């Protein structure tokens, strides 16, 4: 049975080596075994890898996603999308244009972050496969994160886009994830509640 994209985005784990105190490969393996449904390789910010090192890590993480039948999305790096044959790409408002990406990748998944109405108005939402909504809660993981928008933002987006899969992001953990889903999101996207968990398997299951 084929599951829908909305279902595949249910437990969406995002990670780069800069988020990890232990081996990212081990972390992704544990998270995959425990039941994440999608993964985004986001090698970005202070301490992140570049060039060959980034590619080498990406190849290992891509392989794990293949083994576990987990979606593999790359954050804002078309070269890596091609080299790793990713399932899709996720971009923010300041990244590559969705219009160009859609031309380049008619068949890959494209995810776009939106944080407010102006961003939505200025975005070609008809070209995206899913929307990332956030930051829902306060987060210390992304240094340039905007002011938290709360679950109300999910309700607003859901009303405007009844049929586009929506994932909440930013400060989501095992305690507040259900509020994000109740507000209308199809899934939760998390970094630290998995990378920083003392027990990754338990954290993924609770989510
Ligand atoms: N994007 P954590 S917030 C990567 O609002 C990212 O678009 C955000 O990390 C956005 O789960 C964020 O540790 C960081 O809060 C999410």
From TrEMBL:
One of its GO terms (molecular function) is thiamine-phosphate diphosphorylase activity. 2-[(2R,5Z)-2-carboxy-4-methylthiazol-5(2H)-ylidene]ethyl phosphate binds at residues 139-141, 171, 191-192. Its EC number is 2.5.1.3. It catalyses: 2-(2-carboxy-4-methylthiazol-5-yl)ethyl phosphate + 4-amino-2-methyl-5-(diphosphooxymethyl)pyrimidine + 2 H(+) = thiamine phosphate + CO2 + diphosphate; 4-methyl-5-(2-phosphooxyethyl)-thiazole + 4-amino-2-methyl-5-(diphosphooxymethyl)pyrimidine + H(+) = thiamine phosphate + diphosphate; 2-[(2R,5Z)-2-carboxy-4-methylthiazol-5(2H)-ylidene]ethyl phosphate + 4-amino-2-methyl-5-(diphosphooxymethyl)pyrimidine + 2 H(+) = thiamine phosphate + CO2 + diphosphate. Its cofactor is Mg(2+). SUPFAM superfamilies: Thiamin phosphate synthase (SSF51391). Residues 12-194 form the Thiamine phosphate synthase/TenI domain. InterPro entries: Aldolase_TIM (IPR013785), ThiamineP_synth_sf (IPR036206), ThiamineP_synth_TenI (IPR022998), TMP_synthase (IPR034291). Keywords: Magnesium, Metal-binding, Thiamine biosynthesis, Transferase. Mg(2+) binds at residues 76, 95. 4-amino-2-methyl-5-(diphosphooxymethyl)pyrimidine binds at residues 40-44, 75, 113, 142. Condenses 4-methyl-5-(beta-hydroxyethyl)thiazole monophosphate (THZ-P) and 2-methyl-4-amino-5-hydroxymethyl pyrimidine pyrophosphate (HMP-PP) to form thiamine monophosphate (TMP). This is Thiamine-phosphate synthase. The lineage of its organism: Bacteria, Bacillati, Bacillota, Bacilli, Bacillales.
